[in-house]
Amino acid sequence: MDSYDQEFKENGDTTYDNNNNHVSKKLKLSPFISDSEIRDEFSYHDPGVARINHGAFGSCPASVIAAQREWQLRYLRQPDDFYFNQLQKGIVESRKVVKEMINAESVDEVSIVDNATTAVAIVLQQVAWAFSEGRFQKGDAAVMLHYAYGAVKKAVQAYVSRAGGHVIEVHLPFPVHSNDEIIDEFKKALEKGKSIGKKVRLAVIDHITSMPCVVIPVKELVKLCREEGVDQVFVDAAHAIGNVGVDMKQIGADFYTSNMHKWLFCPPSSAFLYCKKSPKFSDLHHPVVSHEYGNGLAVESAWIGTRDYSSQLVVPSALDFINRFEGGIDGIRKRNHEAVIRMGEMLSKAWGTHLGSPPDMCSSMVMVGFPACLGISSDSDALKLRKHLRESFGVEVPIYYRAPKEGEVGAQNKHNCVTGYARISHQVYNTDDDYYKFRDAINLLVRDGFTCEMLPCN
Predict the structure, then answer these.
(1) CA 61 vs CA 93, 109, 314: distances in Å
(2) Which fold has domain 328-454?
(3) pTM of this prediction?
């Protein structure tokens, strides 16, 4: 018998198995991972929880966890040998994998860092130096999306605003209906900078916004920045790799970062920072200064003192897991996208609401409107409802509160206006039952006349 897993595929044919037993489905030998193997890889998940929040923290398969454990043991067995003979080589192998996956020009453009937050600090640190050293003038501007991740906003405040930069936020519509809406608002922000005499030195652009989640037309916005003479373009793509297509040559940004522990099956925490090879970006440094300072960002990042580097060393093992799926990473992305759209549409139909954006502006995550009668009227309500779903129904899902706009239909009556959205994710371990469980929990709350006002304060 071939060692490949047996899979029966529907095709209407009659056939027999190896024991000459009659079966109604055709026997097919498949080299790809089976559903049971997927379940085994994630069997450590809490079986009582519908984990439809993969986007927040990701999840790592057991085979990659085992590879990580082996790296940890290599260090513990003989730390000196690990640091002097294995660490740098292992990090280079991870960088090579990333280089190929993102179509970078050179492996020298790829550094492995802890997470996107660290990458943001690296990029914004050199922007702050440009202000302090006079290469940028006080009052020069940085442009970023209003929906930028909270930690990124704080970093812009800490590095750019404190150094004397003027920050312009791009206010995007939500729900959103087309890429043109986003592009138009971004143009307005750049024009605003010009109109008040600000030289735009930096643009920070999300590839996929976190909350609410929308795939941003990043190539078009980078092109627009180039046309308008923006000095540096940084794409914060924390959710991108493994979730959408990533091609550095097509995107054309100066800097690009993405977490690998979210959608690339690596353990936390692991990310990459792409830095376009250019003399003007030679002064990039890791914010934790250690022995490798001055030897280039990639080398600096690979040795920032004694710590656990194992999550950054298992990128090749994560790729091995990915390649067990038909179509590799592209096949996984397609599978997840189609499933999350199908489940999102199922939920919106069940609740009489809508998606937050068209399917082509979604990745493996989608925003689904809650029934208005739940009365989600603040960020606090969103957090309380999320906690209630976790503790009372075993559903883990992030919730976004969107304040109604003036003049919006139903805005005067909170029971007629959709103000709450769930961000559902889909990863290979998810099943339809996870989303049915969510649907049924909300339907039960609606049936019982529940509103967020009934929940105690956290």
Answers:
(1) 20, 28, 12
(2) Aspartate Aminotransferase, domain 1 (3.90.1150)
(3) 0.91
